[in-house]
Amino acid sequence: MVEKHTSDIGFSEAPVRVSEWRRFRRVFFERKLVTFGLGVLVLLVIAAFFAPLLAPYDPYELGDAGESLLQPSGEHLMGTDILGRDTLSRLIYGARTALMVGFISVTVAGIIGIPLGIIAGYFGGVLNMVIMRAMDALMCFPMLLLALFLAAVLKEYFSGIWVVIIALSVAIIPGYARVTHGLTLSIKENDYIMAQRAMGSSNSRVMFRHILPNAFPPLIVLVTMQLGALILAEAGLSFLGIGIDPPGAAWGAMVWDGYRYLANNPVLWLAPGIAIALVVFAFNIVGDGLRDALDPRLRGLL
Amino acid sequence: MAELLKVENLKTQFNTEGGVVKAVDGISYHIDEQEIIGLVGESGCGKSVSQLSVMQLISTPGEIVGGEVIFEGQDLLKYKAHGSEMRSIRGAKIAIIFQEPMTSLNPVLTINQQLTEMLELHLKMSKKAARERAIELLSMVGIPSAKSRIDDYPHQFSGGMRQRVMIAMALSCSPKIIIADEPTTAVDVTTQAQLLELMKDMVERFKTSLVIVTHNLGVVARYAQRIYIMYAGRIVEEGTTKDIFGKPRHPYTIGLLKCIPRLDEEEGRKLVPIEGLPPNLINMPPTCAFLPRCSYKVGRCFQESWPPLKHLHGQHYISCYANTEERTSEPAAR
Asked: For A264-270, which contacts have Cβ atoms below 8 Å and span 24 or more sequence positions?
Protein backbone atom coordinates (compact mmCIF):
# COMPACT_ATOMS: atom_id res chain seq x y z
CA MET A 1 0.00 0.00 0.00
CA VAL A 2 2.68 2.41 1.02
CA GLU A 3 4.84 1.45 -1.93
CA LYS A 4 2.09 2.22 -4.38
CA HIS A 5 1.64 5.58 -2.82
CA THR A 6 5.27 6.54 -3.04
CA SER A 7 5.70 5.35 -6.59
CA ASP A 8 2.77 7.53 -7.64
CA ILE A 9 4.56 10.66 -6.59
CA GLY A 10 7.80 9.60 -8.17
CA PHE A 11 9.89 8.39 -5.28
CA SER A 12 10.49 5.09 -6.94
CA GLU A 13 14.04 5.94 -7.94
CA ALA A 14 15.27 4.92 -4.51
CA PRO A 15 17.92 2.25 -5.05
CA VAL A 16 16.55 -1.23 -5.05
CA ARG A 17 17.98 -3.14 -2.15
CA VAL A 18 20.17 -5.92 -3.47
CA SER A 19 20.08 -8.93 -1.24
CA GLU A 20 23.34 -9.99 0.31
CA TRP A 21 23.14 -13.37 -1.34
CA ARG A 22 22.72 -11.87 -4.80
CA ARG A 23 25.61 -9.52 -4.28
CA PHE A 24 27.72 -12.40 -3.05
CA ARG A 25 26.95 -14.49 -6.13
CA ARG A 26 27.61 -11.62 -8.49
CA VAL A 27 31.05 -10.83 -7.04
CA PHE A 28 31.95 -14.48 -6.65
CA PHE A 29 31.08 -15.67 -10.13
CA GLU A 30 32.18 -12.56 -11.91
CA ARG A 31 35.74 -13.79 -11.99
CA LYS A 32 36.12 -16.62 -14.47
CA LEU A 33 39.04 -18.06 -12.58
CA VAL A 34 36.99 -18.44 -9.42
CA THR A 35 34.25 -20.16 -11.32
CA PHE A 36 36.85 -22.44 -12.86
CA GLY A 37 38.28 -23.21 -9.43
CA LEU A 38 34.84 -24.02 -8.10
CA GLY A 39 34.33 -26.33 -11.10
CA VAL A 40 37.56 -28.18 -10.29
CA LEU A 41 36.45 -28.61 -6.70
CA VAL A 42 33.04 -29.88 -7.72
CA LEU A 43 34.75 -32.42 -9.98
CA LEU A 44 37.01 -33.42 -7.10
CA VAL A 45 34.07 -33.98 -4.78
CA ILE A 46 32.21 -35.96 -7.42
CA ALA A 47 35.29 -38.09 -8.08
CA ALA A 48 35.73 -38.74 -4.37
CA PHE A 49 32.10 -39.62 -3.72
CA PHE A 50 31.48 -41.76 -6.74
CA ALA A 51 34.95 -43.26 -7.06
CA PRO A 52 33.70 -46.87 -7.27
CA LEU A 53 31.33 -45.94 -10.09
CA LEU A 54 33.76 -43.77 -12.01
CA ALA A 55 36.91 -45.81 -11.79
CA PRO A 56 37.22 -48.18 -14.74
CA TYR A 57 39.21 -50.72 -12.75
CA ASP A 58 39.77 -51.82 -9.18
CA PRO A 59 42.63 -49.57 -8.07
CA TYR A 60 44.11 -52.28 -5.87
CA GLU A 61 43.91 -55.15 -8.33
CA LEU A 62 47.33 -56.20 -9.47
CA GLY A 63 47.72 -56.74 -13.16
CA ASP A 64 48.94 -59.92 -14.77
CA ALA A 65 52.46 -60.26 -16.01
CA GLY A 66 53.03 -57.93 -18.92
CA GLU A 67 50.40 -55.48 -17.75
CA SER A 68 52.81 -53.40 -15.72
CA LEU A 69 54.00 -49.99 -16.86
CA LEU A 70 51.71 -49.89 -19.84
CA GLN A 71 51.60 -46.68 -21.81
CA PRO A 72 48.24 -44.90 -22.03
CA SER A 73 45.88 -46.68 -24.40
CA GLY A 74 42.21 -47.15 -25.06
CA GLU A 75 42.06 -49.84 -22.44
CA HIS A 76 44.03 -48.00 -19.76
CA LEU A 77 43.53 -44.28 -20.40
CA MET A 78 46.50 -43.35 -18.25
CA GLY A 79 48.39 -46.57 -18.43
CA THR A 80 49.35 -48.76 -15.51
CA ASP A 81 51.98 -48.64 -12.82
CA ILE A 82 54.73 -51.10 -11.99
CA LEU A 83 52.29 -53.47 -10.34
CA GLY A 84 49.90 -53.29 -13.26
CA ARG A 85 47.30 -51.18 -11.48
CA ASP A 86 45.21 -48.76 -13.54
CA THR A 87 46.55 -45.20 -13.01
CA LEU A 88 43.24 -43.44 -13.73
CA SER A 89 41.44 -45.57 -11.16
CA ARG A 90 44.10 -44.85 -8.59
CA LEU A 91 43.91 -41.16 -9.41
CA ILE A 92 40.16 -41.17 -8.78
CA TYR A 93 40.54 -43.07 -5.54
CA GLY A 94 43.35 -40.69 -4.58
CA ALA A 95 40.82 -37.84 -4.64
CA ARG A 96 39.08 -39.63 -1.79
CA THR A 97 42.20 -39.71 0.31
CA ALA A 98 43.01 -36.09 -0.43
CA LEU A 99 39.54 -34.83 0.41
CA MET A 100 39.19 -37.00 3.46
CA VAL A 101 42.49 -35.88 4.92
CA GLY A 102 41.71 -32.27 4.07
CA PHE A 103 38.21 -32.11 5.46
CA ILE A 104 38.75 -34.14 8.60
CA SER A 105 41.93 -32.28 9.52
CA VAL A 106 40.31 -28.90 8.92
CA THR A 107 37.30 -29.89 11.02
CA VAL A 108 39.32 -31.32 13.88
CA ALA A 109 41.68 -28.36 13.91
CA GLY A 110 38.73 -25.97 13.75
CA ILE A 111 36.89 -27.65 16.60
CA ILE A 112 39.97 -27.31 18.79
CA GLY A 113 41.59 -24.14 17.47
CA ILE A 114 38.55 -21.85 17.15
CA PRO A 115 37.32 -22.24 20.76
CA LEU A 116 40.88 -21.84 22.00
CA GLY A 117 41.21 -18.59 20.12
CA ILE A 118 37.84 -17.27 21.28
CA ILE A 119 38.53 -18.16 24.91
CA ALA A 120 41.99 -16.61 24.83
CA GLY A 121 40.72 -13.45 23.18
CA TYR A 122 37.58 -13.08 25.26
CA PHE A 123 39.00 -13.63 28.72
CA GLY A 124 42.48 -12.26 28.14
CA GLY A 125 44.92 -12.24 31.01
CA VAL A 126 46.69 -15.39 32.13
CA LEU A 127 44.47 -17.70 30.10
CA ASN A 128 45.30 -15.73 26.98
CA MET A 129 49.00 -15.92 27.81
CA VAL A 130 49.00 -19.67 28.31
CA ILE A 131 46.94 -20.51 25.24
CA MET A 132 48.55 -18.12 22.81
CA ARG A 133 52.11 -18.84 23.87
CA ALA A 134 51.42 -22.55 23.46
CA MET A 135 50.12 -21.80 19.97
CA ASP A 136 53.17 -19.69 19.21
CA ALA A 137 55.39 -22.55 20.29
CA LEU A 138 53.56 -24.89 17.90
CA MET A 139 53.80 -22.30 15.16
CA CYS A 140 57.58 -22.16 15.47
CA PHE A 141 57.91 -25.43 13.61
CA PRO A 142 57.36 -25.58 9.90
CA MET A 143 54.06 -27.33 9.30
CA LEU A 144 55.52 -30.22 7.33
CA LEU A 145 58.31 -30.79 9.82
CA LEU A 146 55.88 -30.83 12.74
CA ALA A 147 53.58 -33.18 10.90
CA LEU A 148 56.51 -35.39 10.03
CA PHE A 149 57.60 -35.54 13.65
CA LEU A 150 54.10 -36.23 14.90
CA ALA A 151 53.54 -38.82 12.24
CA ALA A 152 56.71 -40.60 13.27
CA VAL A 153 55.62 -40.64 16.90
CA LEU A 154 52.01 -41.54 16.19
CA LYS A 155 52.84 -44.35 13.83
CA GLU A 156 53.07 -46.62 16.86
CA TYR A 157 49.47 -46.00 17.88
CA PHE A 158 47.51 -45.25 14.76
CA SER A 159 47.40 -46.66 11.33
CA GLY A 160 47.79 -45.19 7.90
CA ILE A 161 45.67 -42.23 7.03
CA TRP A 162 44.80 -41.37 10.64
CA VAL A 163 48.41 -40.61 11.42
CA VAL A 164 48.38 -38.01 8.67
CA ILE A 165 45.06 -36.58 9.77
CA ILE A 166 46.09 -36.18 13.39
CA ALA A 167 49.52 -34.85 12.55
CA LEU A 168 48.16 -32.27 10.10
CA SER A 169 45.34 -31.25 12.46
CA VAL A 170 47.77 -30.47 15.24
CA ALA A 171 49.99 -28.62 12.82
CA ILE A 172 47.23 -26.20 11.72
CA ILE A 173 45.53 -25.62 15.08
CA PRO A 174 47.70 -22.55 15.83
CA GLY A 175 46.56 -20.91 12.59
CA TYR A 176 42.93 -21.14 13.66
CA ALA A 177 43.63 -20.03 17.19
CA ARG A 178 45.58 -16.99 15.96
CA VAL A 179 43.00 -15.83 13.48
CA THR A 180 40.08 -16.40 15.86
CA HIS A 181 41.95 -14.73 18.69
CA GLY A 182 42.50 -11.61 16.63
CA LEU A 183 38.90 -11.52 15.44
CA THR A 184 37.60 -12.00 18.97
CA LEU A 185 39.71 -9.13 20.27
CA SER A 186 38.08 -6.77 17.83
CA ILE A 187 34.54 -8.19 17.94
CA LYS A 188 34.30 -8.24 21.71
CA GLU A 189 34.73 -4.47 21.88
CA ASN A 190 31.47 -3.93 20.02
CA ASP A 191 28.54 -2.40 21.83
CA TYR A 192 26.34 -5.35 21.12
CA ILE A 193 28.59 -7.61 23.13
CA MET A 194 28.27 -5.31 26.13
CA ALA A 195 24.53 -5.14 25.47
CA GLN A 196 24.35 -8.91 25.46
CA ARG A 197 26.16 -9.14 28.76
CA ALA A 198 23.87 -6.48 30.17
CA MET A 199 20.95 -8.69 29.25
CA GLY A 200 22.24 -11.54 31.31
CA SER A 201 23.94 -13.72 28.71
CA SER A 202 26.58 -16.01 30.11
CA ASN A 203 30.14 -15.83 28.88
CA SER A 204 29.82 -18.98 26.83
CA ARG A 205 26.64 -17.71 25.21
CA VAL A 206 28.32 -14.43 24.32
CA MET A 207 31.35 -16.23 22.96
CA PHE A 208 29.67 -18.86 20.84
CA ARG A 209 26.39 -17.30 19.86
CA HIS A 210 27.43 -13.71 19.41
CA ILE A 211 31.14 -13.55 18.72
CA LEU A 212 31.59 -16.73 16.69
CA PRO A 213 29.05 -15.96 13.93
CA ASN A 214 30.66 -12.56 13.47
CA ALA A 215 34.00 -14.26 12.95
CA PHE A 216 32.67 -16.66 10.33
CA PRO A 217 33.49 -14.89 7.05
CA PRO A 218 37.26 -14.73 7.61
CA LEU A 219 37.23 -18.22 9.07
CA ILE A 220 35.49 -19.63 6.01
CA VAL A 221 38.20 -18.13 3.85
CA LEU A 222 40.86 -19.56 6.14
CA VAL A 223 39.31 -23.01 5.96
CA THR A 224 39.18 -22.95 2.17
CA MET A 225 42.76 -21.86 1.82
CA GLN A 226 43.93 -24.35 4.39
CA LEU A 227 42.20 -27.19 2.59
CA GLY A 228 44.55 -26.54 -0.29
CA ALA A 229 47.58 -26.37 1.95
CA LEU A 230 46.52 -29.58 3.69
CA ILE A 231 46.13 -31.50 0.48
CA LEU A 232 49.58 -30.34 -0.52
CA ALA A 233 50.98 -31.35 2.86
CA GLU A 234 49.30 -34.72 2.66
CA ALA A 235 50.81 -35.26 -0.77
CA GLY A 236 54.17 -34.22 0.65
CA LEU A 237 53.88 -36.64 3.53
CA SER A 238 52.85 -39.56 1.40
CA PHE A 239 55.59 -38.68 -1.07
CA LEU A 240 57.98 -39.03 1.85
CA GLY A 241 56.47 -42.39 2.63
CA ILE A 242 54.44 -41.36 5.65
CA GLY A 243 50.75 -41.69 5.66
CA ILE A 244 48.59 -43.98 3.72
CA ASP A 245 49.70 -47.59 3.83
CA PRO A 246 50.14 -49.40 0.53
CA PRO A 247 48.18 -50.37 -1.45
CA GLY A 248 45.96 -47.37 -0.61
CA ALA A 249 45.84 -44.69 -3.28
CA ALA A 250 47.31 -41.29 -2.49
CA TRP A 251 48.53 -38.74 -5.01
CA GLY A 252 51.76 -38.02 -3.20
CA ALA A 253 52.66 -41.69 -3.08
CA MET A 254 51.77 -42.03 -6.75
CA VAL A 255 54.18 -39.26 -7.62
CA TRP A 256 56.85 -41.07 -5.63
CA ASP A 257 56.14 -44.35 -7.41
CA GLY A 258 56.04 -42.70 -10.79
CA TYR A 259 59.13 -40.66 -10.36
CA ARG A 260 61.29 -43.72 -10.76
CA TYR A 261 60.06 -43.95 -14.36
CA LEU A 262 60.54 -40.26 -14.97
CA ALA A 263 61.27 -40.39 -18.66
CA ASN A 264 59.66 -43.61 -19.82
CA ASN A 265 56.25 -43.30 -18.22
CA PRO A 266 55.72 -39.58 -17.56
CA VAL A 267 51.96 -40.03 -17.13
CA LEU A 268 52.60 -41.98 -13.94
CA TRP A 269 53.86 -38.95 -12.04
CA LEU A 270 52.44 -36.19 -14.22
CA ALA A 271 48.82 -37.22 -13.66
CA PRO A 272 48.86 -37.13 -9.84
CA GLY A 273 51.21 -34.13 -9.91
CA ILE A 274 48.84 -32.12 -12.06
CA ALA A 275 45.91 -33.26 -9.94
CA ILE A 276 47.62 -31.95 -6.80
CA ALA A 277 48.56 -28.66 -8.40
CA LEU A 278 45.11 -28.16 -9.86
CA VAL A 279 43.26 -28.88 -6.63
CA VAL A 280 45.53 -26.74 -4.48
CA PHE A 281 45.24 -23.94 -6.98
CA ALA A 282 41.45 -24.33 -7.05
CA PHE A 283 41.17 -24.15 -3.28
CA ASN A 284 43.31 -21.04 -3.14
CA ILE A 285 41.48 -19.26 -5.90
CA VAL A 286 38.09 -20.12 -4.43
CA GLY A 287 39.30 -18.92 -1.03
CA ASP A 288 40.36 -15.70 -2.68
CA GLY A 289 37.01 -15.34 -4.38
CA LEU A 290 35.20 -15.99 -1.12
CA ARG A 291 37.25 -13.37 0.62
CA ASP A 292 36.41 -10.76 -1.97
CA ALA A 293 32.76 -11.68 -1.95
CA LEU A 294 32.46 -11.73 1.84
CA ASP A 295 34.52 -8.65 2.61
CA PRO A 296 32.13 -5.80 3.42
CA ARG A 297 34.87 -3.24 2.79
CA LEU A 298 34.86 -4.13 -0.87
CA ARG A 299 31.10 -3.62 -1.01
CA GLY A 300 30.29 -1.28 -3.83
CA LEU A 301 33.77 -1.51 -5.30
CA LEU A 302 33.32 -4.89 -6.85
CA MET B 1 6.42 4.53 46.92
CA ALA B 2 8.71 1.86 48.23
CA GLU B 3 12.41 2.14 47.64
CA LEU B 4 13.56 -0.23 44.94
CA LEU B 5 17.26 0.34 44.50
CA LYS B 6 19.62 2.00 46.91
CA VAL B 7 23.20 2.74 45.94
CA GLU B 8 25.38 3.61 48.88
CA ASN B 9 28.83 5.17 48.59
CA LEU B 10 29.64 3.40 45.32
CA LYS B 11 33.25 3.71 44.21
CA THR B 12 34.64 2.55 40.88
CA GLN B 13 38.12 3.20 39.68
CA PHE B 14 40.23 2.40 36.65
CA ASN B 15 43.79 1.36 37.28
CA THR B 16 45.48 2.79 34.22
CA GLU B 17 49.13 3.19 33.49
CA GLY B 18 48.88 6.91 34.13
CA GLY B 19 47.46 6.35 37.59
CA VAL B 20 44.23 5.52 39.34
CA VAL B 21 41.20 7.15 37.74
CA LYS B 22 38.44 7.54 40.30
CA ALA B 23 35.61 7.50 37.81
CA VAL B 24 32.92 7.11 40.44
CA ASP B 25 33.97 8.41 43.81
CA GLY B 26 31.43 7.54 46.43
CA ILE B 27 28.02 8.25 45.00
CA SER B 28 24.76 7.43 46.74
CA TYR B 29 21.35 7.53 45.18
CA HIS B 30 18.12 5.68 45.30
CA ILE B 31 15.16 5.03 43.07
CA ASP B 32 11.62 4.25 44.09
CA GLU B 33 9.16 1.98 42.41
CA GLN B 34 7.73 3.41 39.21
CA GLU B 35 9.86 6.49 39.51
CA ILE B 36 11.80 8.22 36.76
CA ILE B 37 15.08 9.76 37.85
CA GLY B 38 17.66 11.63 35.84
CA LEU B 39 21.39 11.38 36.22
CA VAL B 40 22.97 14.39 34.58
CA GLY B 41 26.55 15.36 34.03
CA GLU B 42 29.05 16.11 31.32
CA SER B 43 31.13 13.54 29.46
CA GLY B 44 33.50 11.64 31.68
CA CYS B 45 31.82 12.53 34.95
CA GLY B 46 31.16 8.89 35.74
CA LYS B 47 27.47 8.65 35.08
CA SER B 48 27.67 5.71 32.68
CA VAL B 49 30.34 4.00 34.74
CA SER B 50 28.14 4.25 37.83
CA GLN B 51 25.33 2.51 35.98
CA LEU B 52 27.59 -0.20 34.62
CA SER B 53 28.89 -0.70 38.15
CA VAL B 54 25.38 -1.32 39.41
CA MET B 55 25.13 -4.09 36.82
CA GLN B 56 28.67 -5.26 37.61
CA LEU B 57 29.62 -4.84 33.97
CA ILE B 58 32.92 -3.12 34.66
CA SER B 59 35.83 -5.01 33.20
CA THR B 60 39.56 -4.63 33.71
CA PRO B 61 41.27 -2.26 34.23
CA GLY B 62 38.09 -1.02 35.93
CA GLU B 63 37.27 -2.17 39.42
CA ILE B 64 34.46 -1.56 41.87
CA VAL B 65 36.32 -0.75 45.07
CA GLY B 66 33.56 -0.05 47.53
CA GLY B 67 29.96 0.62 48.33
CA GLU B 68 26.70 -1.21 48.29
CA VAL B 69 24.00 -1.68 45.70
CA ILE B 70 20.90 -2.82 47.54
CA PHE B 71 18.25 -4.22 45.23
CA GLU B 72 15.28 -6.12 46.66
CA GLY B 73 17.10 -6.44 49.97
CA GLN B 74 20.26 -7.95 48.46
CA ASP B 75 23.62 -6.31 47.91
CA LEU B 76 24.30 -6.91 44.23
CA LEU B 77 28.00 -6.22 44.66
CA LYS B 78 28.25 -9.32 46.86
CA TYR B 79 27.40 -11.47 43.87
CA LYS B 80 30.12 -12.68 41.55
CA ALA B 81 30.27 -10.54 38.42
CA HIS B 82 29.90 -13.56 36.13
CA GLY B 83 27.85 -15.69 38.49
CA SER B 84 24.36 -16.93 37.78
CA GLU B 85 22.77 -14.68 40.43
CA MET B 86 24.07 -11.59 38.73
CA ARG B 87 23.04 -12.93 35.33
CA SER B 88 19.51 -13.54 36.53
CA ILE B 89 19.32 -9.86 37.54
CA ARG B 90 20.70 -8.49 34.29
CA GLY B 91 18.04 -8.14 31.66
CA ALA B 92 15.40 -9.77 33.83
CA LYS B 93 15.26 -7.38 36.81
CA ILE B 94 17.42 -4.48 35.67
CA ALA B 95 17.73 -3.80 31.96
CA ILE B 96 19.88 -1.27 30.22
CA ILE B 97 19.48 0.61 26.95
CA PHE B 98 22.73 1.82 25.46
CA GLN B 99 23.32 5.02 23.60
CA GLU B 100 24.43 3.66 20.25
CA PRO B 101 21.48 2.01 18.55
CA MET B 102 23.51 1.48 15.38
CA THR B 103 25.93 -0.86 17.09
CA SER B 104 23.95 -2.28 20.00
CA LEU B 105 22.40 -5.05 17.94
CA ASN B 106 24.38 -8.00 16.70
CA PRO B 107 24.59 -7.56 12.91
CA VAL B 108 24.56 -11.26 12.09
CA LEU B 109 21.45 -12.27 14.00
CA THR B 110 17.86 -11.40 13.12
CA ILE B 111 15.77 -9.22 15.38
CA ASN B 112 13.74 -12.30 16.25
CA GLN B 113 16.80 -14.24 17.33
CA GLN B 114 17.96 -11.41 19.55
CA LEU B 115 14.61 -10.58 21.08
CA THR B 116 13.56 -14.13 21.83
CA GLU B 117 16.93 -14.98 23.32
CA MET B 118 16.09 -12.99 26.44
CA LEU B 119 12.63 -14.47 26.74
CA GLU B 120 13.91 -18.01 26.40
CA LEU B 121 16.79 -17.36 28.77
CA HIS B 122 15.05 -15.55 31.60
CA LEU B 123 11.40 -16.51 31.31
CA LYS B 124 12.01 -20.03 29.97
CA MET B 125 9.51 -19.46 27.18
CA SER B 126 9.22 -21.87 24.27
CA LYS B 127 10.48 -20.72 20.88
CA LYS B 128 6.99 -20.22 19.57
CA ALA B 129 5.66 -18.35 22.60
CA ALA B 130 8.77 -16.18 22.65
CA ARG B 131 8.28 -15.27 19.00
CA GLU B 132 4.68 -14.26 19.57
CA ARG B 133 5.70 -12.18 22.55
CA ALA B 134 8.52 -10.58 20.55
CA ILE B 135 6.08 -9.56 17.80
CA GLU B 136 3.78 -8.13 20.44
CA LEU B 137 6.63 -6.14 21.97
CA LEU B 138 7.75 -4.81 18.60
CA SER B 139 4.30 -3.52 17.76
CA MET B 140 4.06 -2.01 21.24
CA VAL B 141 7.16 0.07 20.64
CA GLY B 142 5.76 1.23 17.35
CA ILE B 143 7.39 -0.89 14.68
CA PRO B 144 4.96 -1.15 11.80
CA SER B 145 4.16 -4.61 10.43
CA ALA B 146 6.16 -6.20 13.20
CA LYS B 147 5.16 -9.65 12.04
CA SER B 148 7.13 -9.41 8.83
CA ARG B 149 9.93 -7.20 10.09
CA ILE B 150 10.86 -9.47 12.96
CA ASP B 151 12.93 -11.67 10.67
CA ASP B 152 14.91 -8.74 9.34
CA TYR B 153 18.50 -8.07 10.22
CA PRO B 154 19.52 -4.97 12.16
CA HIS B 155 21.01 -3.27 9.09
CA GLN B 156 17.56 -3.18 7.57
CA PHE B 157 16.39 -0.88 10.37
CA SER B 158 17.05 2.84 10.80
CA GLY B 159 18.69 4.23 13.93
CA GLY B 160 15.43 5.26 15.54
CA MET B 161 13.88 1.90 14.71
CA ARG B 162 16.82 0.09 16.21
CA GLN B 163 16.52 2.10 19.38
CA ARG B 164 12.88 1.04 19.47
CA VAL B 165 14.02 -2.54 19.17
CA MET B 166 16.43 -1.93 22.03
CA ILE B 167 13.57 -0.57 24.09
CA ALA B 168 11.50 -3.63 23.26
CA MET B 169 14.41 -5.80 24.25
CA ALA B 170 14.85 -3.99 27.55
CA LEU B 171 11.14 -4.34 28.27
CA SER B 172 10.92 -7.95 27.20
CA CYS B 173 11.30 -9.52 30.63
CA SER B 174 9.32 -6.81 32.44
CA PRO B 175 12.28 -5.62 34.50
CA LYS B 176 11.87 -3.57 37.67
CA ILE B 177 14.33 -0.93 36.53
CA ILE B 178 15.37 0.23 33.11
CA ILE B 179 18.57 2.20 32.83
CA ALA B 180 18.62 4.34 29.71
CA ASP B 181 22.22 5.34 29.13
CA GLU B 182 22.01 8.41 26.93
CA PRO B 183 19.26 6.76 24.94
CA THR B 184 18.73 9.61 22.55
CA THR B 185 22.19 10.99 21.93
CA ALA B 186 22.66 9.26 18.61
CA VAL B 187 19.32 10.07 17.01
CA ASP B 188 17.91 13.30 15.63
CA VAL B 189 15.72 15.59 17.73
CA THR B 190 12.40 14.52 16.31
CA THR B 191 13.19 10.90 16.95
CA GLN B 192 14.53 11.83 20.38
CA ALA B 193 11.20 13.25 21.40
CA GLN B 194 9.32 10.23 20.04
CA LEU B 195 11.60 7.81 21.80
CA LEU B 196 11.36 9.62 25.12
CA GLU B 197 7.58 9.71 24.92
CA LEU B 198 7.61 6.03 24.07
CA MET B 199 9.85 5.23 27.00
CA LYS B 200 7.62 7.17 29.35
CA ASP B 201 4.53 5.34 28.10
CA MET B 202 6.22 1.99 28.37
CA VAL B 203 7.51 2.67 31.86
CA GLU B 204 3.99 3.50 32.96
CA ARG B 205 2.52 0.51 31.22
CA PHE B 206 5.03 -1.96 32.60
CA LYS B 207 5.14 -0.31 36.03
CA THR B 208 8.89 0.00 35.75
CA SER B 209 11.31 2.53 37.18
CA LEU B 210 13.52 4.40 34.78
CA VAL B 211 16.97 5.91 35.20
CA ILE B 212 17.72 8.39 32.44
CA VAL B 213 21.44 9.00 32.13
CA THR B 214 22.11 12.04 29.99
CA HIS B 215 24.10 15.20 29.54
CA ASN B 216 21.03 16.94 28.27
CA LEU B 217 19.07 18.73 30.97
CA GLY B 218 16.23 19.29 28.56
CA VAL B 219 15.67 15.56 28.30
CA VAL B 220 15.22 15.03 32.01
CA ALA B 221 13.29 18.22 32.67
CA ARG B 222 10.18 16.83 31.08
CA TYR B 223 10.30 13.25 32.26
CA ALA B 224 12.23 12.83 35.48
CA GLN B 225 10.71 13.28 38.90
CA ARG B 226 14.04 13.65 40.64
CA ILE B 227 17.42 14.62 39.29
CA TYR B 228 20.96 13.92 40.36
CA ILE B 229 23.69 16.21 39.04
CA MET B 230 27.11 14.57 38.82
CA TYR B 231 30.50 16.19 38.54
CA ALA B 232 33.89 14.46 38.50
CA GLY B 233 32.60 11.19 39.87
CA ARG B 234 30.43 12.64 42.60
CA ILE B 235 26.87 13.79 43.04
CA VAL B 236 26.96 17.52 43.61
CA GLU B 237 23.26 18.26 43.77
CA GLU B 238 20.12 16.25 44.03
CA GLY B 239 16.51 17.22 44.27
CA THR B 240 13.15 17.12 42.62
CA THR B 241 13.01 18.39 39.07
CA LYS B 242 11.27 21.47 40.41
CA ASP B 243 14.10 22.10 42.87
CA ILE B 244 16.80 21.68 40.28
CA PHE B 245 15.25 23.82 37.60
CA GLY B 246 13.49 26.31 39.88
CA LYS B 247 16.03 26.83 42.62
CA PRO B 248 19.36 25.36 41.58
CA ARG B 249 21.84 25.81 44.42
CA HIS B 250 25.09 24.19 43.36
CA PRO B 251 27.33 26.47 41.29
CA TYR B 252 27.71 23.74 38.68
CA THR B 253 23.98 23.29 38.25
CA ILE B 254 23.50 27.01 38.10
CA GLY B 255 26.20 27.18 35.44
CA LEU B 256 24.60 24.39 33.44
CA LEU B 257 21.25 26.09 33.42
CA LYS B 258 22.78 29.37 32.37
CA CYS B 259 24.08 27.87 29.18
CA ILE B 260 20.75 26.54 28.01
CA PRO B 261 18.65 28.89 25.89
CA ARG B 262 15.04 29.15 26.99
CA LEU B 263 11.98 29.91 24.96
CA ASP B 264 10.31 31.96 27.65
CA GLU B 265 13.09 34.40 28.37
CA GLU B 266 13.54 37.94 27.25
CA GLU B 267 15.47 38.56 24.07
CA GLY B 268 19.11 39.45 24.20
CA ARG B 269 20.25 37.40 27.17
CA LYS B 270 23.74 36.07 26.66
CA LEU B 271 24.33 32.40 27.25
CA VAL B 272 27.04 32.02 29.84
CA PRO B 273 29.38 29.07 29.40
CA ILE B 274 31.15 27.43 32.31
CA GLU B 275 34.78 28.45 32.04
CA GLY B 276 37.53 25.87 31.98
CA LEU B 277 37.50 22.13 31.51
CA PRO B 278 36.43 19.25 33.72
CA PRO B 279 39.33 18.05 35.86
CA ASN B 280 41.57 15.14 35.06
CA LEU B 281 40.35 12.35 37.28
CA ILE B 282 43.88 11.15 37.99
CA ASN B 283 45.48 12.71 41.09
CA MET B 284 42.49 14.77 42.05
CA PRO B 285 43.07 17.40 44.70
CA PRO B 286 41.33 16.78 48.02
CA THR B 287 39.36 19.99 47.59
CA CYS B 288 36.17 20.38 45.58
CA ALA B 289 36.80 19.39 41.98
CA PHE B 290 34.68 22.21 40.66
CA LEU B 291 36.71 24.83 42.53
CA PRO B 292 38.84 26.04 39.59
CA ARG B 293 35.73 26.76 37.52
CA CYS B 294 33.53 28.03 40.30
CA SER B 295 32.42 31.64 40.49
CA TYR B 296 30.98 31.33 43.97
CA LYS B 297 34.08 30.05 45.76
CA VAL B 298 34.72 31.12 49.33
CA GLY B 299 37.79 30.79 51.52
CA ARG B 300 36.59 27.56 53.07
CA CYS B 301 36.63 25.84 49.67
CA PHE B 302 40.41 26.06 49.49
CA GLN B 303 41.04 24.68 52.94
CA GLU B 304 38.62 21.82 53.37
CA SER B 305 38.10 18.64 51.45
CA TRP B 306 35.22 18.01 49.08
CA PRO B 307 32.03 19.13 50.86
CA PRO B 308 29.63 16.38 51.90
CA LEU B 309 26.02 16.53 50.73
CA LYS B 310 24.16 19.10 52.76
CA HIS B 311 20.43 18.88 53.27
CA LEU B 312 18.58 21.98 52.25
CA HIS B 313 14.92 21.11 52.43
CA GLY B 314 12.64 18.28 51.33
CA GLN B 315 14.67 16.17 48.94
CA HIS B 316 17.07 18.89 47.93
CA TYR B 317 20.74 18.35 48.75
CA ILE B 318 23.89 20.10 47.58
CA SER B 319 27.56 19.51 48.05
CA CYS B 320 28.87 23.05 48.43
CA TYR B 321 30.19 25.41 51.11
CA ALA B 322 29.29 28.62 49.38
CA ASN B 323 26.07 30.45 49.91
CA THR B 324 24.57 30.46 46.48
CA GLU B 325 21.02 31.24 47.47
CA GLU B 326 21.14 35.02 47.26
CA ARG B 327 22.71 35.20 43.89
CA THR B 328 20.50 32.61 42.25
CA SER B 329 17.47 34.71 43.08
CA GLU B 330 18.87 37.58 41.06
CA PRO B 331 17.09 37.94 37.75
CA ALA B 332 20.40 38.11 35.89
CA ALA B 333 21.26 34.59 36.92
CA ARG B 334 18.13 33.04 35.58
From this structure: A264/A69, A265/A69, A265/A71, A265/A79, A267/A71, A267/A72, A267/A78, A267/A79, A267/A87, A268/A69, A268/A79, A268/A81, A268/A87
